[in-house]
Amino acid sequence: MRAAEAAVHLPKSYRVRAELEQLLVGLGEGDAVPAERELALRCGVSRETVRQAMHELLVEGRVERRGRGTVVASPKLVQPLSLRSYTEGALSQGRVPGRELVSLGRLEADEELAAELDLPVGAQVVHLERVLLADGNKIGLESTYLPAGRFGEMAETFDPAESLYAAIRATGVVFTSATERIETVLASPREAALLDSAASMPMLLLHRTSLDAGGVPIERVRSLYRGDRVAFVAALRE
């Protein structure tokens, strides 16, 4: 089939999305996007078609809801896949990192967690859960588990507003290597509420186990990031 003929059969939402992308080029961060009714008239399609195209842009983080309207979104925070902390990654891009404490305490390691941290089942673990912010916007939910035998004092002394990696390094522990797995998921109702997100919004889920120079596990981290606000980059070498 020739290109011209194929173009005739493209879904209307695809054509509308292309027109909306051109519209966004002429707008700046935080600028209001015209209402659905206006866009439908401009593009000569139904409001439902415009709504579908706008939803795709919303999921990709090109636009965001603000009150009853839609505005051009801020650029995504691009986090490096490295042994650097979230704080270091945000600061390197000129963003202001922040954190909101959800919980900090101790729990007993179940079989899976004990295996990941090389601990006996039932061993005490420090659990820290925080909402991560960038320029005041909620971007992720981080849940960290630390062996209490090594970092037990943090359950009482750690300032949740500070960098956890900096606090760990201050004890003399050096992050040497890590294993990380990334997958896409949908947030639970609790997670979506904590991140001010819709439950239907795709999320990036990271599982990380970090080791010190002796190969001893330092932490096990479960990080859930809003796919519309965060992207990841890795430097690859042969």
What features would you describe in this structure?
This protein has helices spanning 3-8, 12-25, 36-43, 47-59, 86-92, 111-116, 148-151, 154-157, 164-170, 189-194, and strands at 63-66, 69-72, 77-80, 97-108, 124-134, 137-147, 177-186, 202-211, 217-226, 230-233. The protein has 238 residues and is α+β, with helices and mostly antiparallel strands. Strands 4-5-6-9-8-7 form a six-stranded antiparallel β-sheet. Strands 1-2 form a two-stranded antiparallel ribbon. The chain has a two-stranded parallel sheet with strand order 3-10. Helix 3 (36-43) packs across helix 4 (47-59). It is elongated. The two termini are 41 Å apart.
Q: What is the gyration radius calculated from CA atoms?
A: 22 Å
Number of helices: 10
Total number of strands: 10
Q: Can you tell me the number of structural domains?
A: 2
Low-pLDDT runs of 5+ residues are 1-6
CATH class category label of the largest domain:
Alpha Beta
Record the SSE blueprint:
Elements: H1 3-8, H2 12-25, H3 36-43, H4 47-59, E1 63-66, E2 69-72, E3 77-80, H5 86-92, E4 97-108, H6 111-116, E5 124-134, E6 137-147, H7 148-151, H8 154-157, H9 164-170, E7 177-186, H10 189-194, E8 202-211, E9 217-226, E10 230-233
Parallel strand pairs: 3-10
Antiparallel strand pairs: 1-2, 4-5, 5-6, 6-9, 7-8, 8-9
